[in-house]
Request: fold
Amino acid sequence: MRLRLLMATTALAGAAAFGAVAPAEAAPSTTSGNVGVQSVVHTVFYEHRNYGGSTLTSVGDYGCDTNSDVDWQASSLSSAWNDEVSSWRGFSYCDTRIYEYTNFGGASNGVFTSTGYVGDAMNDRTSSYRHY
Reply:
């Protein structure tokens, strides 16, 4: 599974100017460096609860499906985002589970499409995630 991460330091409202991806909510999309390939937004992670602060956007070549298998994953977050996630919004039919440690270890929270707060037990403790 391939996953490209796009760091964004603007709020989702600012990022929405990139375009829209359908399912339940409109999501920003961005064209990748590969000509003819469009990246699809899976999840926008937020530094603070209730979708505030800096953002980290996970993207891929296509969205998630309706099966219960893992569609996309990141076994570790960048050092700038390790232990920073407090909320997220999902797009492109992706549900997300966050993990306390790299390689999907430790405590976990999810599977949710979006959450305004990950809870005290997981706040600022995310090191990896999977999209279903």
In short: Residues 35 and 85 are 32 Å apart (CA to CA). The chain has a mean pLDDT of 79.
